[in-house]
Amino acid sequence: MGVTGPPGPVMDRDEVDRALARLGAEHKAIEDSLLALQDHAGRRLLEGAELTGTTRDRWASAERTIALLWTCFDVYAGALRDAHEVRARRRWPGRDELVELTDRLRGESVHVAGGAGEQGLLSERFTLEGLVRRMNELYASSLDVVVTSDAVWSALPARIDLLAAELGRTRSLAHSVGVRPGEHPAGDELEDITAELTLLRAQVVTDPLAFWRPAMGSSAPGGGRPDTDRYDRAALALEDIRREIEAVLAVRQDSEDRLLRLRDVLSRADRTLTEARSARGEVLAKIAASEVPAVSGPPTALQERLATAAEHRRHQRWHRLSPLLDSLEREAEDELMRARESLTAVTAPLAVRAELRGRLDAYKAKVARLGAAEDPLLIERYDTARRMLWSAPCDLRVAEQAVLRYQQAAADVLSGPRDAGGRQW
User: Which ranges of the chain have pLDDT less than 50?
Assistant: First the structure.
């Protein structure tokens, strides 16, 4: 492909010198960038790693791009050098030199012979500025692979290693309290996290670009961030297990006190039930025509589980003791509450009788204070109610009616006319 003449107007000497200075600055900037890319830690890692998947494919393409980039740079440097040689022929170049320089600096005078399939560059011609733009494109695509790989390698493996170290400490702690695979769910979860971290690290090392999340709308090399979702899930799972292990450790430290408190609660529940059974017998003997609820036996099932908990503590089976103590504490409190409710229900008739006795005596005292204690009707009704309330068995319904009749009679007597001393006329 030939050039028939200079593109556009012929450049004068000042335009030529400014163009050469600008293209020389571009040459220096591109050279510095290529050398920096050559020495980039990410590139050295990519060259030495056994890559797989997306990273392997993209790095193979990037290596071809970088090789082509150096070829373009060498062609660019050669063309710029040739232009400088033409310019150096004379201090004041003639028209022939200016025509030639115009062609070299503005025309498609640069020929790049690319191999088949290499970025689609097959023996193309460029202007020097066009070649600079193409090199910038090639550099950006190559740098993106290097920078993103390096970013993932810098972020994830170190964090995975730190998490793996924490995992190791947690596993050791778990083992000390009996949390082992096959014996406790947390032990199985620790094994799962171990396998996940091992696999995750291997995948990150060999295929870092699979763990890169590009920034939306960003075209700059390295725009985005490492994808840490799997790492974050493993870290959260480990934190949950660590808290569970700490809870088991707390059980190991305070299990003796908790067992003592449990024994005390169950003992109080047993004593309350014993009192309720005794009270039930008293109620059945003293109160007639009253439905008295049955009283359950002692909490033997809880006592057996308490003995199992003590056995776990004796053999240091902390992972089994922890959930057992939690459930026992809840159920023991429930049992004590049921025992108290049973005692209340059983003694309710006695409480009713005591209330009726108190009400009867209170009205009698009021009647006496108001000077009506000798009223025959009141004396008769008081004696009737008292005999019912202080005899056994006591029919509460009949006794309550007797107390109400006494109250009514007292109200009638006390509502009549009285003298200055409070006596009724």
Answer: 1-4, 116-121, 420-422, 424-425
The answer to whether 40 and 149 have CB atoms below 8 angstroms apart is: no
Coil, helix or strand at residue 124: strand
Pairing type for strands 287-288 and 224-226 reads: unpaired
What is the distance between the alpha carbons of residues 338 and 352, in angstroms, rounded to a whole number?
Answer: 21
Q: How far apart are CA 329 and CA 129, in angstroms?
A: 82
Q: What is the pLDDT of residues 72-90, one digit of tens each?
A: 999 989 888 888 888 888 8
| Cβ 110 vs Cβ 127: under 8 Å | yes
User: Which amino acid is it at 239?
Assistant: E
Q: What is the structure's pLDDT at 290?
A: 63
Q: Is the dihedral of CA 388, 389, 393, 394 positive or negative?
A: positive
Contact call for residues 127 and 104 (beta carbons, < 8 A): no
User: What is the Cα–Cα distance from 394 to 400, expressed in whole angstroms?
Assistant: 10
The 3-state DSSP class for residue 212 equals strand
pLDDT for position 229: 94
Task: Give 287's DSSP letter.
Answer: E
